[in-house]
Amino acid sequence: MVGVPAWSVVVPAKRLAVAKTRLRPLTDRTDRPASAHEALVLALLADTVAAALASPPVTEVVVVTDEPAAAELVRRLGARTVGDDPDSGLNAALEHGARAVAGDAVAALSSDLPALRPAELAAALSAAAAEPRCFVADGHGTGTTLLTAAGTPLRPRFGAGSAQAHRDDGALALSGGWPGLLRDVDALEDLRAAVALGVGPATADLLATSPTLAVQLGAAR
Ligand SMILES: Nc1nc2c(ncn2[C@@H]2O[C@H](COP(=O)(O)OP(=O)(O)OP(=O)(O)O)[C@@H](O)[C@H]2O)c(=O)[nH]1
Ligand SMILES: C=C(OP(=O)(O)O)C(=O)O
């Protein structure tokens, strides 16, 4: 692709009641587990979407969700939303989102990257601009946090072992100095690692105003 593409970023967000179940051991130890869990999932989403919206090469962020609270939150931040059609899982949701974007440079971004910095995403997208399809593996090397397609279909293969699946499908693995982009939050240890890197304002505020959550985050060390 010639020139610097303007990127559309697609972010998936499940319904809160079924999202981020691997973080339940953390939120279940708080006084009000259901609301603590929802608040945590929404904070991770808010910081991810805000960082993407603030990243210079990103012209739009489209969140694919059927969750009213998530849709309202990200719209307030400046993202667009589309429904979770056809409600057939993560990859179908991402393909649906990719069809809804304006340009032909599209990136699928995990929604659980609270330590993501706008400059990190800009650097990764800049590296991705030279290739039709690229991906960034998560910190464990097995999952994927970013998948890009410029002038070609996205073909998402998220799920267990998605880094290898994206590699096998011809996407180029990118690496660079973007620790926040690698640090998706699936489990307690990931949240600790994100906090050590420095999380965005929504997650930081939640931890500052939820003593039980903050204590549990430290107590299980
Ligand atoms: N819109 C949409 N988003 C999804 C779907 N499945 C997963 N996601 C989102 O994709 C992101 C990455 O998925 P995971 O890290 O596996 O998140 P998760 O399934 O909520 O987490 P666990 O329950 O702990 O496995 C999360 O932010 C999810 O909200 C789906 O069917 N539709
Ligand atoms: C769905 C994925 O996320 P996770 O491994 O974080 O569940 C993935 O990395 O493809």
TrEMBL record:
Phosphoenolpyruvate binds at T144, G159, S162. Gene3D superfamilies: Spore Coat Polysaccharide Biosynthesis Protein SpsA, Chain A. Pathway: Cofactor biosynthesis; coenzyme F420 biosynthesis. GO terms for biological process: F420-0 metabolic process. One of its GO terms (molecular function) is GTP binding. InterPro entries: CofC, Nucleotide-diphossugar_trans. It comes from the Bacteria. Pfam families: CofC (PF01983). Keywords: GTP-binding, Nucleotide-binding, Nucleotidyltransferase, Transferase. It catalyses: phosphoenolpyruvate + GTP + H(+) = enolpyruvoyl-2-diphospho-5'-guanosine + diphosphate. Its EC number is 2.7.7.105. HAMAP family: CofC. Belongs to the CofC family. NCBIfam families: F420_cofC (TIGR03552). Guanylyltransferase that catalyzes the activation of phosphoenolpyruvate (PEP) as enolpyruvoyl-2-diphospho-5'-guanosine, via the condensation of PEP with GTP. It is involved in the biosynthesis of coenzyme F420, a hydride carrier cofactor. This is Phosphoenolpyruvate guanylyltransferase. It comes from Blastococcus aurantiacus. The lineage of its organism: Bacteria, Bacillati, Actinomycetota, Actinomycetes, Geodermatophilales. The gene is fbiD.
